[in-house]
Amino acid sequence: MTASFPQSPDQLPVRRALISVSNKTGLVEAGRRLAALGVELISTGGTRAALQAAGLRVRDVAELTGWPEMMDGRVKTLHPAVHGGLLGVRNAPTHAEAMERHGIGGIDLLWVDLYPFEHASATGAPYAEVVEQIDIGGPAMIRSAAKNHGYVAVCTALEQLEQVVQVLEAEGGTSIELRHELAAAAFARTAAYDAAISAWFMNRLRGEAPVRKVIAGRLGQTLRYGENPHQRAAFYRTHDGSFGVATARQVQGKALSYNNIVDTDAAFELVAEWEPWEPWAPAAVAIIKHANPCGVALGDTVEGAYRRALQCDPVSAFGGIVATNRTLDSAAAQAIVEVFTEVVIAPEADEEALAVFAGRKNLRLLLTGGFPAHDPQSFEEVFRSVSGGFLVQSRDNSTIGPEDLKVVTRRQPTAAEVADMLFAFTVAKHVKSNAIVYARNGQTLGVGAGQMNRKDSARIAALRAADFGLDLRGCACASEAFFPFADGLLEAAAAGATAVIQPGGSMRDAEVIAAADEAGIAMAFTGVRVFRH
Prior knowledge:
Layout: E1 16-20, H1 27-36, E2 40-43, H2 45-53, E3 58-60, H3 61-65, H4 80-87, H5 93-101, E4 109-112, H6 117-122, H7 127-132, H8 137-147, E5 153-155, H9 158-171, H10 176-205, E6 218-223, E7 233-237, E8 249-252, H11 258-271, E9 283-289, E10 292-299, H12 302-312, E11 320-324, H13 330-336, E12 341-346, H14 351-358, E13 364-367, E14 381-386, E15 389-394, E16 406-407, H15 415-428, E17 436-439, E18 444-448, H16 454-467, E19 475-479, H17 486-495, E20 497-502, H18 509-519, E21 522-525
Parallel strand pairs: 1-2, 1-4, 2-3, 4-5, 11-12, 12-13, 19-20, 20-21
Antiparallel strand pairs: 6-7, 8-13, 9-10, 9-11, 14-15, 16-21, 17-18, 17-19
Helix pairs in contact: 1-9, 4-8, 8-10, 12-13, 13-14, 16-17, 17-18
């Protein structure tokens, strides 16, 4: 790739390097290797102190600028002696003359890693502390060096600095191609940093949609392909402080595919609806195929919940994704490996479970250490691309409890039916629309997903239950959106449902309520629609 400096040297030696890093890992070793190459080291504050403590000669930036650090370190590198050294085009006569007249020496290498703003904002640090982690001088230097990549190599990570040092040791200078590559990475880093800062401010304001919205992530994995083999794909990670597939530790198995990631995320988001913060909270297991649940169940143990979830659709479970909200034990692991499974995701797994899974080398095991943010006050955002743009919405953190139900029929649901209705509605929230879910005793019996009309979803869910010998008599039926006509509700009643939960709000609610009363079933409105497209 040709650079924008056709007359800049292809092999550029490094005589002076400015280093200022928050993370001191690898700092001393890198400093020693640069010093051994005869590179003059310039640094600031804690970075300079660490290098000097290792016996290295380091020039203070304050000596370069003639000004001390001030305002608690907010101002130290914002000076022409620094930026002139980074921005000066060495073979431009006017630049060279200005550098000589003002005593500005060229800086050939910059290593800056920025204050840890993303970490501070993601871990809930106090407001003033987060603000102090907004780096000003660092991004300014990075951008100056990257703009002048014809003469400056800029590094924003230790691995980049190590790459540069290796090239200097082997070849004596950096190539224009390498400096161009480093510049591209540098601008991406400052863009991501600014995006994180902007998002933090906007999320605290929670006002109108901002005029500009930036999404930033760090490459976590280059994927073999996307949804199909002819599509390119990559997996990027953000810094939202949540737990899930993006932050999970992969214990075993081959690399995740694009579709694995999509399905695994859907599975873990579903079971996270039952976060086990309390001892009495049930174990939840979801089995996902093509982003839809083919079986979900609660139980006293993970094994019990898994076997109940499997009953709903053991055919579709083959090659599926299994998620649970509790630590995996050996009994659960033994049950899961009885069926070919692509991915298992859980908060943790004990040693016995790990030993069981180790016998299935192709099974991918992910441990998250926590759960996605399901706080109703959370302003975490969900993105979807469209041609020429993208959509942004807040995460659906809606929760429905018994107190939220408005019974609209003459017959009141029993306590058991209420529990079944709430369970079914929670599952329906994670089923592609149009969605119908039949459930009883904390177990899905039939799932109808992604149909163009609700009546078909109700019919398909009943057919699937019948295929696997599951009796729908006395079950609850959940619809994630209102019944626009009575036909869908009548289909559920014919299948055996005795209680129905739905948002309500249709122009024909009265017609649907009358049909429920005539069928002798109980029906409750939630007032909350949970479409999933």
